Amino acid sequence: MAADELVTALASLQQSNARANMGEAIFKGMPEIQSVLRVKEWHSYLIKTASTKNKWIYLNINPSDAAHYPAKASAAFPEADIFCARLVSDDHARKLTGDTPVSLKAK
Q: What's 49-79 look like in SS3?
């Protein structure tokens, strides 16, 4: 549920003001996000919300194969991003970020 809610909220935010909500600035418009770690810039992120507890939401933007993600959403304009997400464990999140996570939004 958390992954579905996140991608739907991102698509809605991008739909409401596309110019202001392209790129990583979009995360600032979502107060429910507690932490964002960049895996690869404007491609993949790990997101922590209050509802994810001991898991992270792995967000992939415009993936080549969206079928691997149970949660998907996009705004309704041609240049809109496709947000895809799934839950991952804390251990898997640590493996994805390695030793140098880039924090984009702190608690």
A: EHHHCCEEEEEEECCCCHHHCCEEEECCCCC
